[in-house]
Amino acid sequence: MTGLIIVLVLIAVVVLFVISMYNSLIQLRNRVKNAWSQIDVQLKRRHDLIPNLLETVKGYMKHEREIMENITKYRSQAMDASTVGEKAQAEGLLSGALGQLRVQVENYPDLKANQNFLALQEELTSTENKISFARQSYNDQVLFYNNKIQMFPSNIIAGMFKFLQEEFFQVEDAKEREVPKVSF
Length: 184
Hints:
Layout: H1 2-58, H2 65-80, H3 84-105, H4 109-113, H5 115-150, H6 154-160, H7 174-177
Helix pairs in contact: 1-2, 1-5, 2-3
């Protein structure tokens, strides 16, 4: 009788351990999803601001058609991207095209003085900063989650219930990795 009680207690401990580990994996996966949704909200905001920016710029920059077409094309690619990797790559291209636009704006003093343009540019810069913070938070959550599903003994539970690794939101564009140069 005592042996049966010990076996039942051991089974109960194992079941409680599996439930606890499974719930912690679910919690971490949901945190990753939540962090991704924060990025997605900011990316949507960025995508919504771009048409207004292009419309404002269009009247001044008639000779910069290629840059505006690239921004439109990369914005569409970013909005259509389905995986984290595709989205990161498309967003990198879009950031590069927006950077080219910012450089070209320097050649148009009237545009630089336009209040609507200045407000849109400030809003876009603010949104880009928010994207950066959200991306950092997302990558932190992915790191915790991926560590959990790869480390023993949680890797056994993760394998049993098919928890898959999440992809980091990495900067693909080498220009984004460069440290900005400050000159006075």
